[in-house]
Amino acid sequence: MELQVNHVITWMEKSNEKIQTNKDFLSALDRAIGDGDHGINMARGFNEVVTKIKETDYSTVSDVLKDVSMTLLSKVGGASGPLYGTAFLKMSTSLKGREKIDYSLFVNAVSEALNGIKMRGKASTGEKTLVDVWEPIVEQLQKDSDFEAVTIETTAKNSMEATKAIEAKKGRAAYLGERSVGHLDPGSVSSYYIFSALSEVIKE
Ligand code: ADP
Ligand code: MG
Ligand code: MG
């Protein structure tokens, strides 16, 4: 398999479905340790993403990812808009000029996205942010040998659940200090939906 335009479009559609279904859940998680808007932010952003990419004709994966990024940057406020926007922009840039996206190019693109998130958010692993899902995903993708062998669904779920035990060091939840322990990180949960959607696309 190689990653094609239609795969990315389906990836975004599936991500959007999961985010819309869990919009209230994501906001409730953010109400516990933030300002309660994560579901609203993500639902608005991904709805706009799907609208945009369905009405456009694309010849490359890089171009789709560029529009995903620009839409998230312009439509999602808060911390998560610039962070997800940067992630998809880095993926797009990494794949620019590539006709065929084989597994190693894709893994490299996701790795670049993780670097972008870390730079933008000045976050590292263990700080109760979406880095705590993206970092293990990149490590897992590097271990898996090709698209057919990808096992990221489990990795995404486990790492998302593990954020519950972490004390927040970045973002609004950091103001709560120790009181952030015992709550899932909302951004890690939305990242889980995005990687769960990716896993479904790859397995189809
Ligand atoms: P806001 O906090 O501005 O209201 P959202 O609620 O949409 O934005 O997103 C919150 C999520 O963003 C958090 O759950 C966390 O995963 C992520 N986040 C916040 N700050 C950072 C950061 N500095 N680096 C990485 N991720 C972050
Ligand atoms: Mg919020
Ligand atoms: Mg906010």
UniProtKB/TrEMBL annotation:
Q: Which reaction does it catalyse?
A: dihydroxyacetone + phosphoenolpyruvate = dihydroxyacetone phosphate + pyruvate
Instruction: Write down the top EC class of this protein.
Output: transferase
The Gene Ontology biological process annotation of the record reads:
glycerol catabolic process
Record's keyword terms, sorted? Glycerol metabolism, Kinase, Transferase
Transmembrane parts of this sequence? none
What Gene Ontology molecular function terms does this protein carry?
glycerone kinase activity; phosphoenolpyruvate-glycerone phosphotransferase activity
The pathway that the record names for this protein is:
Polyol metabolism; glycerol degradation
Which InterPro entries does its entry note? DhaK_L_YcgS, DhaL_dom, DhaL_dom_sf, Dihydroxyacetone_Kinase
Q: Which residues form the DhaL domain?
A: 6-200
Query: Does the entry feature the keyword Zinc, yes or no?
Result: no
Q: What is its EC number?
A: 2.7.1.121
Cellular component, GO annotation: cytosol
Function description: ADP-binding subunit of the dihydroxyacetone kinase, which is responsible for the phosphoenolpyruvate (PEP)-dependent phosphorylation of dihydroxyacetone. DhaL-ADP is converted to DhaL-ATP via a phosphoryl group transfer from DhaM and transmits it to dihydroxyacetone binds to DhaK.
SUBUNIT field: Homodimer. The dihydroxyacetone kinase complex is composed of a homodimer of DhaM, a homodimer of DhaK and the subunit DhaL.
Can you name this protein?
phosphoenolpyruvate--glycerone phosphotransferase
